Amino acid sequence: MFAGPAGTGKTTSAIAMARELYSDSWKGNFNELNASDERGIDVVRGKIKEFARTAPIGGAEFKIIFLDEADALTSDAQAALRRTMEKYSKICRFILSCNYSSKIIEPIQSRCAVFRFRPLRAEDIKTYLETIAQKEDLTISGDALDALVHVSNGDMRKAVNSLQVAASLGTTIDVDLVYHTTGMARPEDVQSLLETAISGDFIGARNRLDEIMISYGLSGEDILKQIHKTIFDLEIEDYEKVRLIDRTGEIEFRMVEGSNERIQLESLLAYLVLLGEHRGDSAD
C-alpha cells in the first residue's frame, strides 16, 4: 500500500515497478483502476475479480491490480476486496494508493506492507522544474523557482502545472507571474498585512487586505489559509501564536458555515490590532 500526500509519486512508482517487472508485456499484466470513480462493491465483484482470476501473460508469475485513491472505496467494497486479495494471491498482487491510510479498513492494512510517501524536497522539485524549463526553452528566475516550490508545498504535480500555466503567458517567468497565475499572494505581502495590523493600524491593514484580495483574485478562505501559514513567521510570543491560530480556526469555521467573509477577515484584523495593543501595554 502506498500512502501519502498528492503529487508525491505514488502512481508513478506503481507504473515504474510494473514496467521493470514485465518489460514490454507490462500493459497486459497491469490493471489500473481509479477507486474514486468506481468505488462500489459491484466493481470489486466485477472488474477486479475478473482481472484477478485470469492467468498472467508473457511468463510472468503474477499480475498487478493498482487501485488508485483506494481510500475512496466504500466499506462494503473494501470488505469484498479483502477476500479477493486472499483468494487470488498466487496469480495476482494488489497495490493500493491512498492519501489517508486510516480510511482503509484494518483487515486490508494487515495484509499489506505500507510504504509512506512524504512531500518532495525543495531541491528535487527545483531540479525537475529546471529540467523542464531547459527543454521548453523557458527563462525562469531563482525567485520564481522558490515561488513554485512554495506554491506546490511538496506536490510535484502542482509545481509542474503551475509552471505550465505561467509559461502560457510568456517564456520569461518571474516571481510576480508565478503568484498571479497560481492564485496565491506573495508570503511577504501577507506578512506585511499581519504586521500592519499588529502595529495598531487597522485602516492600513484593511486597505492592504483589499489590495491583496483584488490583485491576486483571492477568496476569503484562500487568504485565510495563507494567513495561517504566515502566523508562524511572526515575531510574537508562542502563546500569542496559539491564540491567533485558535482565532483563525474559529473564523474559518464561520466562513464554511456561510458567514460573510469580509466581516470575518476584518474581525481577525481587529483581533490582531487588540493583540498588538495588549503587547504594548504589557511592555509598559
UniProtKB/TrEMBL annotation:
This is Replication factor C small subunit. GO terms for molecular function: ATP binding; ATP hydrolysis activity; DNA binding; DNA clamp loader activity. One of its GO terms (biological process) is DNA repair. It comes from the Archaea. Keywords: ATP-binding, DNA replication, Nucleotide-binding. Pfam families: AAA (PF00004), AAA_lid_RFC1 (PF25361), Rep_fac_C (PF08542). CDD domains: AAA, HLD_clamp_RFC. Residues 1-127 form the AAA+ ATPase domain. The lineage of its organism: Archaea, Methanobacteriati, Thermoplasmatota, Thermoplasmata, Methanomassiliicoccales. Belongs to the activator 1 small subunits family. RfcS subfamily. One of its GO terms (cellular component) is DNA replication factor C complex.
